[in-house]
Specification:
alpha+beta; two-stranded antiparallel sheet
Amino acid sequence: MQSMLMNASRVFPLQTATIFSLFVLLLGGCAHVSYQDRARTPLKPMETLAPIKSQDFDVPPRVLEGKRPDYPEPEGANREKGFVSIICTIDAQGRLIDFDLESATSPSFAIAALNAISQWKFAPATKKGHPVTAKIRVPMHFNAL
């Protein structure tokens, strides 16, 4: 057993401290992600859109295209987390015609979320196959990496 360890130390001359240092450097390089770069990534299909209970539609509206909100700079620099919930009214043409701020952990997060949502494109809700106006809840989580 000892001879195997001796052979291993000759083949792999790195010591524990060196391996640990390389590991820390690797993690440090991977951990840096710009909040603004993260915000610019395309949205995944919005499965988190929560329709307000309604008998006005069978299929809720869905996001066709849009980007994540920009992470507010003071909160991003401080690695703060936040949450915003917005009630949106989407008309039968898929246009955002009205929105109300339901809740927000801070005004900065609310402004960023409202700015992003105002640029999204939606597919309208449908009732019996026909487009209809509908209200939906859009929850947004801001998680600092």
